Amino acid sequence: MKKSNSKGVVENGKNEAIHWELRPGGMLVQKREDGLGASGPMIKVKVSHGSYHHEISVPAQATFGDLKKVLANETGLEPKEQRLLFRGKEKEDDECLHMVGVKDMSKVVLLEDPASKERKLEEMKRNQGISKACEAVAKVRVEVDKLSEKVTALESSVHSGAKVADKEFVVLTELLIVQLLKLDSIEAEGEAKVQRRIENSQVVQPMLDDSLEKGSACSELCRDSRHAEGEKF
Questions:
Q1: DSSP H/E element including 228
Q2: 187 pLDDT tier (thresholds 50, 70, 90)
Q3: Model's pTM, two decimal places?
Q4: Is-contact 144 203, C-beta < 8 A?
Q5: Per-residue pLDDT reduced to its tens digit, 125-137
Q6: Is residue 121 helix, strand or coil?
Q7: Rg of the chain taking only CA atoms, in angstroms
Q8: Are 96 and 89 in contact (CB under 8 A)?
Q9: Residue 203: half-sphere exposure toward Cβ, Cα within 13 Å
Q10: Which CATH number fits domain 42-112: 3.40.50.1000, 3.10.20.90, 3.40.50.720, 3.40.50.1240?
């Protein structure tokens, strides 16, 4: 025997609560526990989404909002990003399928909300910009590493007694300045902006300062060496 209470809940013989809800038009139906919010026979709805076609199984008395929740798993579009059209008219989430004439194998058109599509395009452009900026920063890092190796090689040559022209250090310093300017000119946002700042403050600028210092020291060493050779004669 079933017992009812004032909250629209009926207890069956197994002491299990059965919840009911009132549908548009005064129809009282059992509330489903799966979130679709309707019981009764299942129907298949043909949903057209651009070049894609889906056959979705839902309760005949489900709402368009319920249909959107199922389509979210199929299409990757959140319910709020979807617009559903039946017989050329957009339907609201709380409208019931059976109340507007949706039957088994009826056709529904799914469109992506224009505002959502615009946001996704903007996000895609932003991500592409970040990716390009990261690549540009990485290229600068490679060039700076090469210049750093040349500065170290020149320093080693000077300390080993080899003659090195001052202009070689000047050229390397100028090339480092060029890379520094390239780094500053990179338009970056988010992660790329942080990476650019790190490369600038922790890599390129210190390397540039180091190159200037080494160039000055080696130039002085070369001058002392030439002066000493001149005194011999």
A1: helix 205-232
A2: confident
A3: 0.46
A4: yes
A5: 888 877 888 888 8
A6: helix
A7: 36
A8: no
A9: 20
A10: 3.10.20.90
